[in-house]
Amino acid sequence: FFLKVDSSSRRLLVIGYGSVSQCTLPLLIDCFLLKKQIHSLTIIDVIDQRARIEPYHKIYNQINYQQEEITVKNYGEILGKYLSDGDILLDLAVNLETRCLLKWCHDHKVCFVNTSVELWDPFGEAYKNDPRLLTLYHRQMQLIQMQNEPTWNKNGATAVLDHGCNPGLVSHFVKRALIDMAQCVVNDKKILISPGEKTDLQKALKTKNYPRLAYLLDIKAIHISERDTQLTNDPKKVNEFVNTWSIDGLAEEAVAPAEMGWGTHEKIVPEGAFFHDEKEGPCNQICLATKGMNTWVRSWVPSGEIIGMVIRHGEAYGISKYLTVHSNDENNNAALYRPTVHYAYLPSDSTI
């Protein structure tokens, strides 16, 4: 983090106290509060969560809770009450526009962390006639455009966006998998490779050049496969929608267009596919005219084969972009290699 203030006065503000935030609070206590990396921890939520936070407050008087609703009209005022130069904002809520929070934190030298790229009203764009405007790729391009503005200070406070356990942790799993696979190819005498290929892999391993490793290993596709096996003893009612992690989050993502990182090896374009404008970004993804919940793909998890939904996923963008290898020649730095990357999500039985 880009933190200049002494930790004895540093404040951490957490927005939201849903299921993710409730799991995160013990980690924040262990990693920040008890190690004296922060002076205080404040949680705000639109719902009254005092009963759930009170047990922590009794032990740690540095933990505070405020019930407030953050909107497009008051977010600056509310953030200004709890944060200043060198503090940290952790956004674990839904429907708080990432661009606005990022811009505010950047302008006020506040470090910013969140787990998804959000809008104030995600369903307000639902009637746009171009599916590409409803994608996470489009939101990423808006963030890049904001950072390319002349007034943007390149040496501002650190921000880590779209990076939690999911999305976020998969990127680390991919790096570990590439190292394991490359080491296996190099060390297993049963795998026949030329001396030159072995040298290239060893060099990429030494420098931790992950795009090069994926290219040399000829990785064609990466599935972010997930099967939710959680059960409930409270059956859902007729016409009721339930979910294990976020009602609003899944409802928004499920009806959005299916998105995927598009591999350079792909020869057949899916029906209803849309490509992005080459002038406006890396074009590492495509989207489909069909909703994510109506787009199914065969995949695998440790418990066996699944048929999962190609619901959009932040790391379908991030991993495919990161692992792209460019030709680095006069051909406009064209993509020489990129794997196909997408989500394959099978929700819980109750959700379906």
From TrEMBL:
Ranges for domain Saccharopine dehydrogenase NADP binding: 13-160
InterPro entries in alphabetical order: Homospermid_syn-like_C, Sacchrp_dh-like_C, Sacchrp_dh_NADP-bd
Domain Saccharopine dehydrogenase-like C-terminal: 164-346
Pfam family for this entry, one: Sacchrp_dh_C
The name this protein goes by in its record: Homospermidine synthase
Source organism of this protein record: Rotaria socialis
Taxonomy of the source species: Eukaryota, Metazoa, Spiralia, Gnathifera, Rotifera
